[in-house]
Amino acid sequence: MLEITDIEAGYGRTRVLHGVTVPAGKVVAVLGHNGAGKTTLLRLAIGLLKPTKGRVLFDGEDISSLAPNKRVARGMAYVPQGQQAFGQLTTLENLQLVADGRRRGKALIEAQMARFPALEKFATRKAGLLSGGQRQQLAIARALITEPKLLILDEPTEGIQPTIVAEIEQTIMQLAGEGIHVLLVEQHIGFALEAAERYVVLASGFVTQTGDGGLAAASTVRAAMAI
Ligand SMILES: Nc1ncnc2c1ncn2[C@@H]1O[C@H](COP(=O)(O)OP(=O)(O)OP(=O)(O)O)[C@@H](O)[C@H]1O
Fold it and tell me: pTM for this one?
């Protein structure tokens, strides 16, 4: 699906990613401390940033210079940090904004409401009044309405109450079961490794470790991150 090979990228003259390679996998977790370059890597994956060296492959095709909208059209979806939603619109209206004009738009909304019962419960509530966790579920639901092959999630559990963290973890595992690939940035190592098939650890823009996911990898990762 997505393969990122030997990437150099940054902002202006500042190079942030140095020779970064991310293996393919159903769920791939990107771990690392603040400022390690995790968000930069996701921005590169969706095309908001172009590499100065290296390749981004999607379904075997080099998409390194493809614009973000074209990547979305090919089946990539990106949920940035921060539980973004249109706060003055209701939950349902937020979903309709993405679903309108799509064949089966109504069915796509219903499927996401079935996945996230809180969204159905609060369908008529303004998104600005939802909890952070519910808004994150809304952001993920909006992305899923585009029927992606690959969902890119930037810190989906940041600042969210533990019950919804568990629900989001369940969702990620379900998605993998449905054949949707996930590229995930997370600060919660246990959460990320439990869900991940593969992981990479980034430090100062370099990959310092890569391996198979699963909770057994947690101590190795914590040692690599010195925490
Ligand atoms: N738009 C930008 N212009 C210049 N430098 C940037 C920009 N965005 C990020 N950086 C720098 O790139 C480096 C990596 O930032 P990035 O946000 O990718 O890290 P991160 O691992 O996602 O951190 P966090 O966990 O805090 O979100 C940092 O040194 C940051 O200051």
Answer: 0.94
